[in-house]
Write a structure and sequence with these properties.
Blueprint lengths: L3 E2 L6 E2 L2 E4 L13 H13 L4 E3 L8 H10 L7 E6 L6 H15 L4 E6 L13 H13 L3 E7 L3 H8 L6 E3 L9 H12 L2 E4 L32 H20 L4 H10 L4 E6 L3 H8 L8 H15 L15
Parallel strand pairs: 3-4, 3-10, 4-5, 5-6, 6-7, 7-8, 8-9, 9-10
Antiparallel strand pairs: 1-2
Helix pairs in contact: 1-2, 1-9, 3-4, 7-10
Length: 322
């Protein structure tokens, strides 16, 4: 798998990135530790050498499983993790970084990201100048190598850039969720900021494995996902039916087709989770898939039958107290 450069840094990342929200278990059902650890390792062996996690995924549990899977190959893997919105004051951020370093069993974090802007989920509204100052200091100390943000608007990204270099932004982005293209993608092209797309398979919807009447348990985060509701969900089902012949043409899965489309977009790498080794190995195949421009355009048209019905709210879930 050919690696890419993270923003303006000297860090190399894989175009497909292992996502580990599910490894924290909180908000997910049917997740087994051994299978997740095996999936992270299988992804690494298949070329997915970059892994993304966060302190809030299972209160640090996901970070521990990343360490369990990759500690013996740490020097050849790229670690990205995130500090949550309640840890963005200088003191709390420094402590959060130390805790993540300990859980990840490493002496540096390759990419350290602000998970949500300060004030999200009724957290303290810490000035971005203070947060960025702490991140720059951590970078100078060698505890982190690059700074990223997640769930930021273009205006928030521009403000943060006044206080230090930012090499990546992590937004929700997929064939079925494309608000990021309006302002953030052009800005990131201009500023050479990498886009690390999360929910790149629309939380599994783009794999085609969920039927028209599927319902998630209340404790599954996808039960709150707008894409799995009402007319939007039915439109997604119709779009998936139109995507199938294209996937068959390339002798690939629907999931790989969606990932390959995403990584063909400007500045964009795809974060993809996996519950088991088979899924991780399948996701890695997307990196070798080259789709013709004509088919990329056709996929784009199909995608918009879903996205044209969505509002401007960039948050994919009906979270309370956001």
């Amino acid at each position: 798998m050919n690696s890419r450069t993270l923003g303006k840094s000297d860090i190399r990342i894989s175009p497909v990135i292992m996502g580990t929200w599910q490894a924290g278990k909180k908000g997910w059902v049917g997740i087994e530790d051994d299978e997740v650890v095996a999936a992270i390792r299988a992804g690494y062996e298949a070329g997915i050498t970059t892994v993304d996690t966060a302190e809030v995924y299972g209160d640090g549990y996901s970070e521990k499983l990343v360490a369990k899977a990759l500690s013996d190959v740490r020097e050849r893997a790229t670690y990205a993790t995130k500090a949550f919105a309640n840890h963005l004051s200088a003191n709390k951020l420094t402590e959060a970084c130390e805790n993540s370093l300990e859980r990840l069993e490493t002496d540096r974090i390759d990419l350290y990201q602000i998970h949500w802007p300060a004030g999200s989920f009724k957290t303290e509204k810490v000035p971005i100048e203070e947060t960025m100052g702490a991140l720059v200091k951590l970078k100078e100390q060698g505890k982190i190598r690059a700074i990223g943000v997640s769930n930021f608007s273009k205006a928030q990204l521009e403000e943060a850039l006044q206080y230090g270099r930012i090499d990546s932004i992590q937004p929700p982005y997929s064939l079925f969720w494309r608000q990021v293209e309006q302002e953030i993608v052009p800005f990131c092209e201009q500023e050479n900021i990498s886009i690390l797309a999360y929910s790149s398979l629309a939380q599994g919807l783009l794999t085609g494995k969920f039927g028209p009447d599927h319902e998630f348990p209340a404790d599954d985060v996808r039960s709150k996902n707008k894409l799995f509701k009402g007319e939007i969900y039915q439109s997604a089902q119709q779009a998936i039916a139109q995507l199938r012949p294209i996937a068959e043409k390339y002798e690939t899965s629907l999931g790989c087709l969606a990932i390959a489309w995403l990584t063909a977009q400007p500045q964009t790498c795809a974060i993809v989770g996996a519950r088991n080794s088979q899924q991780a190995e399948e996701n890695a195949k997307a990196a070798a898939l080259e789709i013709s421009q004509a088919d990329l355009d056709k996929i784009d048209d199909i995608s918009r039958t879903v996205t044209d019905q969505l509002d401007e709210n960039p948050v994919m879930w009906n979270f309370e107290n956001l």
